[in-house]
Amino acid sequence: MLEKVLAAPVHDLPYANLRGCRLLVIGATGFIGRHVLESLYAIERKHSLGIRVVCTVRDERRARAMFARFDRTLALEYVNWHLLGGGLAVAGTIDALFHLAAVTNSAAMVEQPASLAREALIGAFSVFDLAADKKARVIYASSMEAYGAVNDTNPRKENELGHIDLTKPRSAYPETKRMIENILSCYEAQFDMPFAVVRLGQTFGPGASLSDHRAIYSFVRQAAAGLPITLATSGASRTNLLYVSDAVDAMIRCLVNGDRSGTYNVSDPSGSMSVLELAHLIDGTLKGNGVQVKVDPRVNAKYAAETRLVMETSRIQAIGWRPRTSIVEGIQRTARDLHGRALEAGLEW
């Protein structure tokens, strides 16, 4: 079952700003989207604000089953649509929307980069056209990858970007993230559309796909199974970890308490570490069987360019955000969730 990430919502937020709001969630059945729905459900249950939610989904039957317990509380509505589905049409008012849909499959970033870029950019224009027409505020889930490669560990503010090698097909993912951030600024300038770019660190936690093979999930599976954690790279690249409920808290804060428009870095300062350090942390937390480094140059092409990025988070902290789940606790919760769902699905662990 999806973790109840905000069963007791933070008390310092002006939730009254959401009273009577009709919200649109793009990519509702994705990893972060499901946690956003969980959060809105908890807020509505606690504060009775009359929040209503419209979800874009690819499979309405699956979505209805997934969100059955939210249905009446959030007056859920569904729109069958995907990023290449053409113009996005939603009847009635929309006060704000969360744009959470994205291609995050590592293999697709290398094997289908043109398709990834097309889907991301065409989808963004469709979403933002609707937002501009509805006079809706946009909350966009961007990524730390928008920074590109950074060659030092000085904490980087939102405007202190690194280098993206435009000759590398793998760069399609970070470059489209960066481009969409700029498109939002263009829409604000031309259509007076307010927005918040929430530039997330590597977001992890319960509810991730069992087929998600990003490093943190692969490491958790290996350690929890008592196997050595195996790295296909040197592990020198840095990551900036962020537990999923803390990511959602940041997005809700930006919606109800943020500046009219702007970009916010969001990561847990204690989660800034090299991939090798992450492997050792997971191994120690889950009592695994050690860490092995087996560098494979063929595998390296699937990963983002090596970076030493440390995200500076004073702007999101200025509106009251703090990480509330430690990285170690997040790893433990993630391991329990993956293990439980793997057993339910009859998969080897």
From TrEMBL:
KW Lyase (keyword) present: yes
Organism encoding this protein: Actinomyces weissii
Keywords for this protein: Decarboxylase, Lyase, NAD
InterPro entries in the record: Epimerase_deHydtase, NAD(P)-bd_dom_sf, UXS-like
GO molecular function: NAD+ binding; UDP-glucuronate decarboxylase activity
KW Lyase (keyword) present: yes
Name of the protein this chain belongs to: NAD(P)-dependent oxidoreductase
Record-annotated NAD-dependent epimerase/dehydratase domain positions: 24-266
A Pfam family it matches: Epimerase
Cofactor: NAD(+)
GO biological-process terms attached to the record: D-xylose metabolic process
Cellular component GO terms held in the UniProt record: cytoplasm
Domain of life: Bacteria
